[in-house]
Amino acid sequence: MKSDTEILTLYAQESTKELAFIALINQTQKKLYAVIFRILQDHNDTDDVLQDTYIKVWRSLHTFKGDSALYSWLYRIATNTCFTFIQKKKLTHTLDLPNDDEILSHAQMSNAVMPDINQLLLISLLEKAISQLPAKQRIVFCMRYYDETPYSTMAQILLTSEGALKASYHHAVKKIETFILNHI
Fold first, then answer.
1. DSSP assignments along 24-81, one per residue
2. Which is nearest to 67 in space by CA: 155, 151, 165?
3. Most buried pick, 1, 28, 52, 160, via CB within 10 A?
4. pLDDT one-digit tens code per residue, 112-138
5. Residue 53 sits in the same domain as residue 121
6. Pair 150, 165: CB distance under 8 Å
């Protein structure tokens, strides 16, 4: 595993630029994929956005100033790319998530040890509720709930104030609670 400094040093040299970028991808791909997937909740869209993220990184890595960790910078690009993708595709209300019948059918067909069916239904409701959030609230909720990202780090990544993030998270939680209570 290479440090940020090692990657940037290698990237600055034309002969090792591609090696540095490959190392960066290898070190960050799984984590960024998880972040993007939590926001978009679709593997094909996640693949597209992850690819777009790395294209943006390739084109602008030379502008990285080192004000934050390299991963924080990548995280910011990934979340902004998600936001742009959501806006373009109008995914706020059209995500194709499995319905309760599909989850029950899958659970009944599986011979593997499955979590409690109520737990699966609750997870499905949570995913549906998240998909109904406005893009910014969805990103803030996913960063805080799934990644447990501190507000101070989120403020650096999303270039906004901690107060605005706390308000967005609070509104997201209330909307999710209302959605789940209305669908139980």
1. HHHHHHHHHHHHHHHHH--HHHHHHHHHHHHHHHHHHGGG---SS-HHHHHHHHHHHH
2. 155
3. 28
4. 444 566 777 778 888 889 988 998 899
5. no
6. no
